[in-house]
Structures are given as C-alpha cells and as structure tokens.
Amino acid sequence: MKVALMKPKELISNYWKGFRGYYYSPSKFLTIASVFVLLHFLLAKDFLGITFTSNVSTHFAFLFMNIALFSLISFVVYKKYKKNYNEHLVLNIYNVSLWSIIFVPISIGLNFIEIRNEYKMAFFILYLLLIFIWNSKVFQMVIFKRVLYITLNFILLFLIVFLLVYYTGSMK
Fold it and tell me: Membrane-spanning residues where (predicted)?
C-alpha cells in the first residue's frame, strides 16, 4: 500500500513490465477496496455527498463504474504514451482501489458527524483530484504538462458525466 501511495510509477511500470510478485496484484487491491465498499454500505448513507439507494450493488457498481470511466479517460488523455486500454484498466484498478480504501473511512466519518453535502462534495472533488494526480504520476512529464493533463482529465470527466446525465434525462 505504501508503494502504491508514494511511488505509483514504480508500481505500475513494474506491473506492465511483468514484475508482479513484489506487490499486491490489482485483483487483491480491488478485493480490499470491495471490502471497504461493503463496510461503507453497512455504515454510511452516502459516499462523500453522493447518495446511493439502499442496495449494496449500487455501491459496487459505483466502484466498478469509476474504474471503467477513469480507464477510458486516461486511455484518451494519455494516448501519446502508447498504452492500451487493458494497461490503463490495470492502472485504474490500482488507482481507484487505493483512493477508495483511503476515502471510505473518511466518508463514514463524515456521515457520523453529519456535515452538509457541500462540504462532503469538497472531499469528493479531492478524491477525484487525487485520482487524476496519481494517474499523471505514472507517466514521465514536467509539472506544467502534469497540470495540463490533470485539467484535461477533469474536463473529460465532467463532459462525459454531463452527456450521460443529459442523455439519460432526455430518454424519459
């Protein structure tokens, strides 16, 4: 977990190169994150301001949807680094699992102290920002370029979410 948090480039590039025995596999990371998601379902009503139905499957769907969505976004944004979608999928399984493991206890704590949703959403934005920063640290680049890529990640995410909300709203 420490390597995943502090040295994302080392973790991911070693996995991509086939050195897989040194760290937790993506499936183990995802399993641990899934346990945290189950714990969240049992103890909290929303995740950083995002309310789910009282069904555990929506919590897991949120986790897996984030992995798929962030994989698509990183595949598009980091296209010039010539990694295929499966490599981005592995990267984002580690990434989303790591930050979910860290933010689930924060979300549970925020639910217990019952702060306003606006403050919870600030934590959700931080969650997204850390995911995008972590993704950018896997690839070699200067700070200005990193900021640009993180900004592109946010723009693409909000564009996709806007289109999904618009499209599903227009289907009613």
Answer: 60-78, 90-113, 119-135, 147-167
Contact (CB, 8 A) for 74 and 91: yes
Place of tokens 């986790």: 63
Strand partners, 51: 46
Phi and psi torsions of 50, nearest 5°? -100, 115
Residue type, 95: N
Q: What is the DSSP string of 132-166?
A: HHHHHHHS---HHHHHHHHHHHHHHHHHHHHHHHH
Delimit the domains of the chain by residue range. 2-170
**pLDDT given at position 170:** 60
For residue 14, what pLDDT is reported? 83
CA gap 49, 149 in Å, rounded: 26
Nearest to 5 by CA among 133, 126, 107, 120: 133
